[in-house]
Amino acid sequence: MEETDREAVATAVQRVAGMLQRPDQLDKVEQYRRREARKKASVEARLKAAIQSQLDGVRTGLSQLHNALGDVKDIQRSLGDVSKDWRQSINTIENLKDVKDAVVQHSQLAAAVENLKNIFSVPEIVQEAHNLIEQAELLQAHRKLMDLECSRDDLMYEQYRMDVKNTHDMNLIRNYFGEVQNLSEELAKQLWMVLQRSLLTVRRDPTMVVSVVRIIEREEKIDRRMLDRKRQTAFIPPGRPKKWKEKMFEVLEGTVSTRIEGSQSDTRESDKMWLVRLLEITRKYVQNDLIVVKNLMIQCFPPNYDILNKFFTLYHKALSVRIEELASEDLEANEIVSLLTWVLNTYKSAEMMGHPELTTEMDVNNMGPLLPKEVVNQLLSKYIQIFTSNITGWLRKALETDKKDWKKDTEPEADQDGYYQTTLPAIVFQMFEQNLQVAAQIDEIFKQEVLRLCLKQMTSFLIRYREEAIAYKEDHMRDRQHPQCYVQYMIAIINNCQTFKESIKSLKKKYSKTEFDEHDAAINSTLDSVAKDGCVYLLDEVFMDLEQHLNELMTRKWLTGSNAVDTICVTIEDYFNDFAKIKKPYNKEMTFEAHRRVVIEYVKAVMQKRISFKNPDERKEGAERMIKEAEQFKFLFRKLSAGLGEDTDRLCDAIVALAEVFKLTDPTLLYLEVSTLVSKYPDIREDHVLALLAVRGDASREMRQMIIETLNQNKPLSTVNIQPVFRDIVVPTTVNKLLK
C-alpha cells in the first residue's frame, strides 16, 4: 500500500508540474482543482458500481451452489430406492418366463389366425393370380402376390423368433408356399415383357407402363422394410431383396441394345450403301424413341427415376458399343467417311440428339464422345491409306483412258471458247472435289490433310503425264501418219496444263485457308514443262514439214527465184490455224518460239555457206531478197501475234542486218557494217562473222583477219536483256575449215 501511495503521489506531482509550467497558469489553479475533483468523484462512483456488481454475482453463485447440493442429495436417495427395487424384482422376472413363452406363442397364433384365410387358400389365390396375369391385370395380380408373400413371411418370421434352429418347420412353410415364388417369377417375366415393349406400349396404353412402375415401387418399398428388419433381427424372407428396380434398368438397357443392334437389315454384299442405310435407320429410331420418352414415358415414372436422362445414357452407351463394333470391321473408304460424319457431326446435331424437343430437357454437349479419340484417329489413318491407294489407281485409270483418246481419228472436243481439251482435268478434279466434300463433312483439319494428299498425288501424276506426252510424241515420230489428229491432241495436252492450273487454284480457294502449299512449285513447274515440251513437239512437226524448203534458202536455186519462203509462210499460217486453239499464255510462247526458230533457221542457212556471191549484182540481189523475205516473216508473225502484245520486228531485223552486210558495195566500209551488226547482236561469234564474209565472197584473208582482230579488241559488252539470235547457231566444221 505504501508503495502504491508513493507512486500515486509521484504521478500527482508530475501532473501538477505539467499544468503549472507557466506563470499565467497560476490563475487557473482553482479551475484545475475543480476539474480534478470531478474526475475523482467519477472514478470513485465507477469503483463502487463494479464492487457492487461483483458482490451480487458472488451472492447468486452461492445460492445456485446451495440448490445444486440439494438436488444431488435427492438424486442419491432416488438411486438407492431404484437399486433396492431392482434387487427385489429379479426373482419376479425369472418367474415370468412362462408368460414370455405364452406371449410368443400368442403372437404366432395371432399371425396364423390373421393369415388363416390365405393359408388355406394358397392354391386358389395362386391360380387367381395366374389368371389375372394372363388378363394383363398386373396390379391385382401383384396385390394377391403381396398377400401370399406377407402370410408366408409373417409365419416364417414368427417361427424364426420362436426357434431359429428349427429348419424343419421353416422348410415346411417354404414348401407350402412354394408356388408363391413361381408366381413372383411369372409376374416378373410379364413386367419385363411390358418394359421391353414399353416404347410401343406407352403410345397405345400408358396405364400398363404405369402399373409396372407402381408394382416395382411397391416391391422396392417391401425390400427396404425387409432389409431394415434384417438389420434388427437378422431374418430375411426367401427371395428378398428382389431388386426389381435394378432389374428394370437392366431390362431397359437390354431393350435399347437390342433395338440398336436389330436395326441392320442389309449387308455389303446385298447393298453397297448398307452402312448409310443402317446409320439413317439408327438415327430415326433413336430420335423418335427419345422424343417418345420425353413426351410420354417421362409421365409414367416418378421424378426421382430421372428416366429421360437414363434413356439418354442407355442409348449413348448402346450406340457407342455398336459404333465401335462397326469401326472394327473392314470398312471401305466411303464407309469410314459415312461412319465418322455420323459420329462427329450427325450424332449431336439437330437431326438426332440435338433435336429441339430434346435439348429443352438435356444438354447434348454434356455427353462424352461416341467413339474414343484413338479409334477416330485409327479410322482417319485407315481412310488416308485407302484413299491414297484408290486415288493412285483412279489417276492411273484416268490417264490410260485419256491416252486412248489421243489415238482417235476424230479431233478432241473444244470448250466454250473453242480451245481443244480432253476430259482428263475434269475427271481428275471431279475426283478431288468429291473426296474433299466428303472430308469436309468430318472436320476442317481432316479436309486440309486430304487436300494436301490430293496435291501430293497430283505432283506424281503430272510427272507420269509428262512421260506419257513424251512417249506419245515418240510414237508419232516413228510413223508421222498416225495418229491422224496428233497435232490437235498435243494442243489439248498443252491446254490441259492451263486447265489443271486453274482447277488447282479454284480447289485451293474453296478448300484451303493458305494461299501457298509445299507442292505448288513442283506442280507449276511440271505443268509448265509439259506445256513447253508440247509446244516444242508441235514446232518440231512444223519444221519437219518445212525442212525441204528451209534447205533451199541461201542456195543458187533460191537466188534465181525460189518460192521457198512463200511456202514456209503458208505452211506456218496453216499450222497456226490449229495453234490458235492453244490457251494463253502458251499460245504467246508458241508464236514467239515459232518466230525465233524461223529466223534462226534462216540465219543458220546463211552460216552454212550454201552460196557464195560472185559479184556485186548477186550480192545486191541476194540482199534485197533477204530484206523482202524478212518483211514477209514480219508480216506473218505480226498477223499471228495480233492481240498477244508480242514485238515481232527485232528477230527479223537480224536477217535485214545480215543483208546490209551483203548489200554494202564499198569493201573498205565492211568493218563498220560488221561492227554495227555485232553491236546490235552481241551474241554473234567470230565464226559467224567469218561465215558471213565468206558468203559475201569478196573479203580477202587479210581483210577478214583485220576485221576479226579489230572486233576482238573492241568487243561489245553482252546485254542480258537482249534475246540472243546467234548463240545457238553452230557453223559447220567444214565451213570453218574452208574459212581458215
Automatic annotation (TrEMBL):
Family: Belongs to the SEC6 family.
UniProt superkingdom: Eukaryota
Protein name according to UniProt: EXOC3 protein
Gene name, Swiss-Prot/TrEMBL: Exoc3_0
Pfam families, per the entry: Sec6
Gene3D superfamilies tied to this protein: 1.10.357.50, Exocyst complex component Sec6, C-terminal domain (1.10.357.70)
Stored InterPro entries: EXOC3/Sec6, EXOC3/Sec6_C
